[in-house]
Q: What sequence folds into this?
């Protein structure tokens, strides 16, 4: 289910400075998100957070199949 997102190709002369890099980054981010979602739907959640080692509550493990972090560490990870 690792679906590639198609980003339209543009001629360099039609893009302002930095736009090509932004389009490339968007493409990479979308593919990374798709890969994470595919992994999360097939693998079980961890019982302990991979970052801090604290127990991940059962309600979270059931609600977010394949979760790797407690809510606190996941929030910090997403802010990076």
A:
């Amino acid at each position: 289910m690792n679906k590639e997102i198609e980003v339209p190709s543009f001629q360099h002369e039609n893009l302002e400075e930095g736009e090509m890099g932004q389009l490339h980054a968007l493409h990479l981010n979308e593919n990374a998100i798709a890969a994470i979602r595919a992994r999360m739907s097939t693998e079980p959640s961890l019982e302990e957070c991979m970052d801090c080692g604290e127990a991940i509550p059962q309600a979270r493990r059931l609600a977010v199949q394949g979760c790797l972090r407690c809510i606190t560490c996941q929030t910090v990870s997403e802010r990076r």
